Amino acid sequence: MNERIWGIIGGVALLLALLSPLVLGNAKKVERLFENAEALYERSDYENAIEKYEASLKESNKLGAKTRHIDADFATLVHLKIALCYYELAGETQDVNYYHNALAYITKVWSNAYVRKHQEELTYLWAEILYKIEDFEQAKAKFAWLIEKFPNSHRIAKALYTIGNINYQQRNYEKAKSIFQELIDEFPNSEFKVEGERRIAKIEQLVKVEPKQKQVAEDEMRSELSDELEPTPPKSEPELQAEVMYNEALHLTEQGKLHDAIQGYTDLITQFPENYQYVTDAYIGIAEIYLEVEDYVKAREHYEEAMYTTNDGNRKIEIYKKYQLTYLVPVYANDGSTPDDGGDAQFFIQAIRLRKKGEYLEAAKLYEKLTNSNLSSENISKAIYWAGYCYHKGGLTNPILFSKSVNAFKRLISDYNENSHTIEAYYGLVLAYSDWARTPGYRSKWELVISTVDEAVTKYTNNYDVRVRGWLSRMRELKEIAIQNLKPPPESDPVSTPAPKPLPTKERHADQGYIHFGRGELKKATEKARQALKVDPNYQRAHELLSEIKETYYGRGWIFFDEEQYDKAIEAFKNAINIEKRFKEVHCHLGVIYIKRKEYTAAIKSLKQAISIDQHFKEAHFNLSLAYLRLGRFEEARSAANAALRIDPNYEPANRLIDYIAD
After folding, report:
1. pTM to 2 decimals?
2. What structural domains does the chain harbor?
């Protein structure tokens, strides 16, 4: 063979080597991109998650990229995930265009989807989006299709309720009533049963009232004319002033100016203490502001004051019912209490409200203002943390704000080094650097992710608090993402053959498990620990690794729970239960989450499981009574509350719940 032919062959080989990364797929790269996307989705960073999902899909379409180990129908799964991201973005931003983007991804794969789970998820999401964009006829059709094709789906009750609700909105009352009745009959233990019963009662009232509306209107007009003829005594000057002050405070509440509203109500109480009607109203107004931000203790205090200032028996009963509701919240929940620092506490209320509404920049500015006020050191540290948190959230749409987030978290770490919020500040700082690094021109921030995680790990090496371990685990995940992003692209070597893998041993499995655990890769760490135990069921080191993984999942669940990211909290808690079935606290926490999500049947199941593990778990008994109460199962609610009181006769929430049932 002459030199010319050898040259051509060599050139072709070189060309193939150069082009192989462009045309040949890499299964590990697909998996890495997909895992990065999943991590971003978990953090509610939906736009960057979409980018990574798209990249994983593109890589999976190259020759040789195998994805069946990830999912049997990887392309459909990724389209579903991207659609979910757009769905969440629409909910966050109220921009309906995101709903249409989601629909585009659903319709691309819906007709060819063959994995039953994907078919169900796509159909449900499609129906939900149609409902959100008020395409009610199409939504009804899609929900009906879901019910027909997936009769065992856990979403059937929700689908029936939504169809009934659409008919209710369209004033198809008989049809709506029929569907709500079907819901009640078919799903007597569903969390939607009570809502269905309320809708039926409302429909019956409307059907009864509509034919009489004309007569009622005429009667009301005659009544108004009659009232005008009867003289009413003039109000005194103090009463008129109190009325004006009350209306001004009420108007401020409606405008969201809660600090000013509380001040207005307080001024009314101070200036007109004898004007009991408006003083009572003012106390109720303050209580309801605290209730909105879930500060049940302060809400309770002001409802009590309201009851003391009125002699109207019916009004007292009405206020007492609201007062009792401040006890009827599941235990272990974040109480959302606001700091007690006089007037400054009212600014916290306003900041909390803005944060909960997603108005992060306004909330951040208010928190920042509080950091320079005369608060206690504990509350200043809390204000600094939330300022950093809100600036970070704002940075996701305006990257300039990342620097403000970083400065806040650094200040907290520097000035309050041993504070309870310091570990959260480390995580916030790592997260801010991570998202900043994804902004064009700021790749070097990945290095700060790595150094900050290392600093946090060193500081908390000997801290075994569950939540601290949860924060550190999440930080290690972000460090691993940073390392991957700083790596140069791998050089292709199509002719090289991999070295033979050493035979697995229990020690090697455990070693690999601890490596994955150190990176925050808990699923892979669990798999390796279980592989070691298959070799030797009594291998202590593998059992210890599983125990550490379990505690880390529990810590993560707590973190997500505090952040009200309930889907992620459920996943973390369930992973902990998969390692230890009798983890009573986790079963109780799951029950609390399900109560908050109005999934009362699921709550009852989890709480009964907690009680079966520990019959003296009073918080689980109380939460169980609360779940029964929400379903209208009063005798079972009373029985569960009494069980809590047999354990602790002075347990205030259970006593209040029994009083509430009696009323």
Report:
1. 0.55
2. 24-153 (1.25.40.10), 166-210 (no CATH), 238-325 (1.25.40.10), 344-486 (1.25.40.10), 581-663 (1.25.40.10)
